[in-house]
Automatic annotation (TrEMBL):
Membrane spanning residue stretches: 32-52
Protein name, entry field: 4-coumarate--CoA ligase
Every AMP-dependent synthetase/ligase domain range: 132-552
Catalytic activity, as annotated: (E)-4-coumarate + ATP + H(+) = (E)-4-coumaroyl-AMP + diphosphate; (E)-4-coumarate + ATP + CoA = (E)-4-coumaroyl-CoA + AMP + diphosphate; (E)-4-coumaroyl-AMP + CoA = (E)-4-coumaroyl-CoA + AMP + H(+)
One GO term of the biological process aspect: phenylpropanoid metabolic process
Length: 731
């Protein structure tokens, strides 16, 4: 998506691969400000004086308590249904049947789109690094009927390669059309797919493939090189199917994989087309996917997700999104190996939408891989539906705010006036803010910002981490779209709660989806109980047909996290702490693993503190650390390079390299003072504020193994990598 390039070095990763863009092209509007300024202000003043009547949006009931007699906790369900829904429509009980029926229903509608490659070149940067630049053309589309034919061909092809019901295939690739075709082909033959992040490290990759005894690995050419490097450590892999790109397989790679059958994807499709095989359709309780998480601790765990799990999730989400159908276009760029990305594509499949594929590297006109003069994915596709993680939206908001602040003057006043008027309208349901005023603000203030995402986005879903209230309002106002904030985990098939499109509140994740119950179970040790006032609080536990089957080959962890009640319902204990609002909506307030008891008995919530301190304009990323042997906490901070260098220039601080600046005592003090201000604004306790900090010059990316694909910090990995630095902070 659209983010500031923290490092600016072209390294791989969702954050570091995307660079800064011209966030507000309206800064250079040809005289519009001078021409319309007086008109804007006159109309605004008139409306401020005239539109004084407002009415509060009454908080309607969205969740209702469920009787779970004999079971601990307070359970809630979606008020729209008095039962848990399992299918999006009758007969769609598996991913294979869902796909086939959707393709039949929407046969002639466009489905999968990929941009044509016109040319590519590799240039050398000033520091000697090689950077690939792409000249991409328009989207080339295949309709639902054509994609279904390719899926059937691929399914027949893997059977011809010798796959039976007991064999597993793994997909190790970035998101693309062939990823979806390969997975649906496997489902059509009741074959279990093992999904692996393209950013997974070698040890985790070897662990995932060997543990699941994968016989065929499907990957792109970039990942094929990684596989060649670890070939001696792979025990069961016999076949490799690779996606053809603009490169050829190198001789060195071929030699390392010479003992395996290595086939291009199109050849497998042709093999199946020449030798069609009847489908072996799965049952609802068959395992569709073993999804390896990029979790925050240790080696990844494989979550077993059944066909029934996934289709019930699709059914639940369909009931809460606004009217979406074949006319909508979805931007597919999130990793399909992440349950969030996979669930999103399955939902839009069920609704007949078109999916245009892109990547964080080619998203905007100024993304790192886009050749100058070439348009980015959002400019060409102009999507109507979008999924994003909070870190991406935070970066867009910060970028726009920074540009407006830098411009100052009349533009800043107009932007502030427009923003505050729209904010008041949203929060108080002020119907007077419409018509002429809305037209003016949208056309001359917010339209250029919306153009950053193509200008047509009408619904956005956010998940993977908590979304701040400020950013949610920014999306509502500047991007002009409702945003559904979801809560869920891989173990709950991406979602368990989902804010409904007409809910304008912030900071909450909505009521339970109609496919699951959510209950709170008291955690006495942490001080969270269901009898708390004014709202019940406790550990969040999710139950229902969308709860995954458990962890592959790990009965101990499965037994620890999953419980089955007397009625046979499976519950997953998330480890997150939440509270129920009176209308039945859930709010995430803490996490059990993030709470540490200090030497003198105070409890510090690391995640809560990090979210507050991250509001400092110097903080790109932060991890707070504490233990029970000390009375204070410390922090590792990755500073925003641009901000710290700007401060250094103004303060007259000399340095040779950014690493040197991060060691400078004045720089450390400046960042620490900003953390104190953020802590005060966030009303943190004194013991919550890090007594000492360490500035780290290099960004944390999924490729470094220090954050997940959803950009959440991997606490254990960071602690292990920077153990020496943490210990020095306590000296």
């Amino acid at each position: 998506m659209i983010m500031e390039n923290i490092k600016g070095d072209g390294t791989d990763g969702l954050v570091s691969q995307t660079n800064s863009i011209s966030y507000v092209p309206f800064l250079k509007e040809q005289g519009l400000i001078s021409i319309f300024a007086a008109l804007f202000l006159s109309i605004a003043v008139f409306l401020v004086l005239s539109c004084t009547n407002s009415r509060k949006n009454k908080q309607k009931k969205r969740g209702i308590v469920v009787d779970t007699s004999g079971e601990p906790g307070l359970a809630m369900r979606n008020i729209k249904f008095d039962y848990l829904i399992r299918e999006p429509w009758p007969g769609a009980s598996t991913l294979a049947s869902l796909f086939e029926q959707a393709c039949e229903k929407f046969s002639e509608h466009p489905y999968l789109g990929t941009r044509s490659l016109i040319s590519r070149e590799v240039i050398e940067s000033n520091d000697g690094r090689k950077i690939e630049k792409l000249h991409l053309g328009e989207y080339e589309w295949e309709n639902y009927g054509a994609v279904f034919s390719r899926v059937c061909n691929f399914a027949s092809g893997v059977v011809q390669m010798g796959h039976d019901l007991d064999s597993r295939l793994a997909i190790f690739s970035d998101t693309r059309a062939e990823w979806l075709i390969a997975s649906q082909g496997c489902f059509r033959q009741s074959l279990t797919v093992v999904t692996i992040y393209a950013s997974l490290g070698e040890d985790a990759l070897v662990h995932s493939l060997n543990e699941t005894q994968v016989s065929t690995l499907i990957c792109d050419l970039k990942q094929l090189k990684k596989v060649a490097a670890i070939r001696p450590r792979l025990v069961t892999v016999k076949n490799i199917i690779y996606f053809e790109d603009y490169e050829e397989v190198g001789d060195d790679v071929k030699s390392k994989l010479s003992d395996l059958a290595v086939l291009p994807f199109r050849e497998v499709e042709q093999l199946g087309k020449n030798n069609p095989t009847l489908p072996r359709l799965p049952e609802s309780d068959n395992i569709a996917v073993i999804m390896y998480t990029s979790g925050s601790t240790g080696l990844p765990k494989g979550v077993m997700i059944s066909h029934g799990n996934m289709v019930s999730l699709v059914a639940g989400v369909r009931t809460v999104v606004p009217k979406i159908g074949p006319g909508d276009v979805y931007l597919g760029y999130l990793p399909l190996a992440h349950v969030f990305g996979l669930a999103g594509e399955l939902v839009v499949l069920s609704l007949g939408c078109a999916i245009g594929y892109g990547s964080p590297l080619t998203m905007t006109d100024t993304s790192n891989k886009i050749k100058k003069g070439t348009k980015g994915d959002v400019s060409v596709l102009r999507p109507t539906l979008l999924i994003a993680v909070p870190a991406i939206l935070d970066q867009i908001r910060d970028g726009v705010s920074k540009k407006v602040e830098e411009k100052g003057g009349m533009l800043k006043k107009l932007f502030s006036l427009a923003y505050n008027r729209r904010l008041k309208a949203i929060e108080s349901d002020l119907f007077g803010v419409s018509g002429v005023e809305t037209f003016i603000w949208d056309k001359f203030i917010f339209k250029p910002i919306r153009a950053l995402l193509g200008g047509r986005v009408r619904f956005m879903l956010c998940g993977g981490a908590p979304l701040s209230a400020d950013t949610q309002r920014f999306v509502n106002i500047c991007l002009g779209t409702p945003i559904g904030q979801g809560y869920g985990l891989t173990e709950t098939c991406a979602a368990a709660a989902f804010t409904e499109w007409d809910d304008t509140t912030v900071g909450r994740v909505g009521p339970p989806l109609p496919c699951c119950y959510i209950k709170l179970v008291s955690w006495e040790e942490g001080g969270y109980t269901i009898s708390d006032s004014p709202m019940p609080r406790g550990e969040i536990v999710v139950g229902g047909p969308s709860v995954a089957m458990g962890y592959f080959n790990n009965k101990e962890k499965t037994k620890e996290a999953y419980k089955v009640d007397e009625r046979g319902m499976r519950w997953f204990y998330t480890g997150d702490i939440g509270q129920f609002h009176p209308d039945g909506c859930l709010e995430i307030i803490d996490r059990k693993k993030d709470i540490v008891k200090l030497q003198h008995g105070e409890y510090i919530s690391l995640g809560k503190v990090e979210s507050v301190l991250a509001t400092s304009n110097y903080v790109a990323n932060i991890m707070v650390y504490a233990n029970s042997f000390n009375s204070y906490c410390v922090a590792l901070v990755v500073p925003v390079r641009e901000e710290l260098e700007k401060w250094a220039a103004n303060a007259g601080v000399a340095y040779q390299a950014f690493e040197e600046l991060c060691e400078n005592e004045k720089a450390i003090s400046e960042v620490q003072q900003s953390l104190l201000k953020a802590a005060k604004a966030g009303k943190l306790d004194k013991f919550d504020v890090p007594a000492k900090i360490k500035l780290l010059p290099d960004p944390w990316t999924p490729e470094s193994g220090l954050v997940t694909v959803a950009l959440k910090i991997k606490r254990e990995a960071i602690k292990a990598k920077f153990n020496e630095e943490l210990q020095k902070l306590y000296q």
